[in-house]
Design a protein that fits this description.
With 308 residues, the chain is mostly helical. The protein is 72% helix and 0% strand.
Amino acid sequence: MRSHGLIWTAAATCWLGWPATTEPPRGPSPAEIRAEAAARAERSLAWADAESQRALQLAPLDEFFADVKKHTPQFADAVLGLGSKWRFVADKLPYTRGNRHAEFLQSAFREHLFAPEDLSRAIEQIARSYADSLTAIENRMLVKLREDLSDLPPAALPQFADEATLWAAYQDALQRTLAHIGDDLKADVSQELVSLVAGEVLTQVAVRLGVSAGILGAGAGASWATLGAGLVVGLIVDQLVSWIWDWWADPRGNLAAELNDKLNHLHALIVDGDDAAPGLKAALGDFARRRAELRKAAILELLRTDGA
């Protein structure tokens, strides 16, 4: 009976076209799954790139300068008053210590307009806020990526098991990627060093405003110690030479308008830079581009490994 069963099975196989043995269909290999995950990751990376561009906001700096320019008439009153004129004349007299007028201008600038360190803090805060925004964008990108890969076999993507595991794996991938690049690029992409972007922009603007090389040698922060005087001394001295004996003249409006022009020039140099050096917008944009390159390299590094 057993032989008859074997003969029937063989006959049925030939007649019906059934295979003699049935093998389960082969699923994708772990390498194929990771390749599919890498392809899907491009969508999340493109989203992060677009969000990074939208997150660059310089409105706080616009508001800073708009507020400063409201006070230029009061500043003009102070620097064109009798006390200012007296110091200007006294500095020209023999056997006097001099420099009293420049010190007065600097003090009036800080009192009525802004302290240079206030501007430094405003710029650095913009840079740091942007770096924080990029970190938040990357965190949301990881959530989106994990959701996009949720239908793939989890055994091939153990790093995506949960949000905490994915975040830790991503940080490890970032560090492995950073280990393969030069120190200069590390400085350009590190979140902790983004304030260097602000410092470099400030230094370049100080050079263009004619701050002395000696002051610059003391560092970017110190280079702003005489920003007020450096910005307005030339303008105010020119006007005082013309008006010094015209005690009843009222040049307040003209001086305020010209000072506003200088503040607009300073604002533009900080934001847009010039042909010789980039401004804050371009510098932070370049920071974002380099960070995007690092982000992509880290994600691909993460997906090339099996989590072992």
